[in-house]
Structure formats: structure tokens, C-alpha cells
Amino acid sequence: MTCATDCAAPTITRNHLFGPNWGLRHRLGWSGQFGVHGAQHNESFNAAFHTQLGFAFAGLNHYAVNDGPGTIEWIGDVGAKVCKTGCHSTGRAFDLTAVKLGPNLYDMNVIWRSTQPREAQRKYLAIWAAMRRDCATVLTAAYNTDHHNHIHIDTDAGAQTPPLRTSARTDTMLVQTACNLLNGASLTVDGSWGNKTSAAYQALLGAFRLQCTSPTTNYNHLRGFVELICRTAMADQSAGAFVGPC
Q: Where are the beta strands (DSSP E) in the chain?
């Protein structure tokens, strides 16, 4: 996914996502590995992207309330519209640093690491899957070292959210991580869709009872797939705890 650079693109200013209760807080510094976030603040967004991103967080909140620690309290960031190459220049990108769910703060610099409990790693996966439901590109710590301390989320102008792309490193890494954390696979998370990843993916679909769907060709099937990943990971369960209609 690429965006044309246009620093003059029209934007809106908002200090929240989806609703005023989910305020944005900018990361100002560090306390060890954890980000220090300030008070609620404004960011500039493309209006359609702000709505789209809000829906992604609404999906996350649904499973956090029903299967996790509780509702979104606030959302940490290090920027949306920034005058640089790509989607940030048009306000169609967002860099997520933390989410406070109920009493718990999940910092994107910390919870993905192998030194963290499985529950924390699964929360990172849940956030990743929720963002992919509504947005085309989600760059995480698995992607490269530049994203070890935040998750980058973007979408191109006018582009529909695509189904699962086995040719995209970002999507393949999501599948590989889900297979490992939810279904006991031991894949290398390298973004390469080979025979081992294909077999583990089919096993995950089977555990989800989604054998009759096609996340790689149908967006609605992709939506069901990532929602099951999000719900299962949010609840700190293994694949099969929640299943699809098939």
C-alpha cells in the first residue's frame, strides 16, 4: 500500500477516535521501556480515515469489553498527519503507541516482546488484528525495527480494505503470529508465505471452523477471520475457544 505525498491535503482536527471518551494522548518521552503520555491533545486526520480508524478501535473495544479487561480509556500516539513521504502527509496514517483498556495499559514498545507473558503478546495480536479489519496496512514490531515502539496504520485514498494478501509481508506476519500464539505453531515470522505457513493457516481456519470461507479472496471473510483472531487473543485463549459459523 502506497500513498501519494500531499502535505496540503485537507484535514480535520480531532482529539479522540470514534467518540469523545476515547481521547488521544501524545507520547512525550520514556520511563524505561514505557512511554510517558501527556494530556488529551489534537491530531490532524483525513476525515474519512478518522472515521475508518474509529471503527477499527470500536471493534477492538467490543472484544475488550466482552472478553478482555474492559473499555478503552485512552489511546496513545506519536502522530497522524505529518509532512513527509506517504500516507502521513495526507492524514491517512496513524502511529499507535499505547491503549489503556480498563485498568491495564498496553504499551506497543513492550507487549510484543518474547520476554513478556503470553497474555501480553496476545493483546498485541488482538490490537493488530482489530486494526487490520478496517485498514489496509498495519506495520508492527514484526515488520522492522522502526516499528518496535509503535504500530503504524494506514490506508490509501479511496481504496477499499483488501482481503488477506499472501503476497504482503504485513498480512503474512499477522497470520504467522496468530498461528503461533493461538494454535501452537512454531513458524518463523518472516512475512514469507511458504508451505509451512500455508499448512498452519489451514489448521488455524480449521480450529476456527472457518474451512468454508475465503479470507484471501473475500473481504467479509477476512473480516470474520481477523475478528476471531482479535476475540481469541483478547480473551487469552487458544484457537477454538470461539468459532465461526462454519
A: 12-14, 16-17, 19-31, 34-40, 43-45, 72-77, 93-101, 104-107, 137-139, 151-154
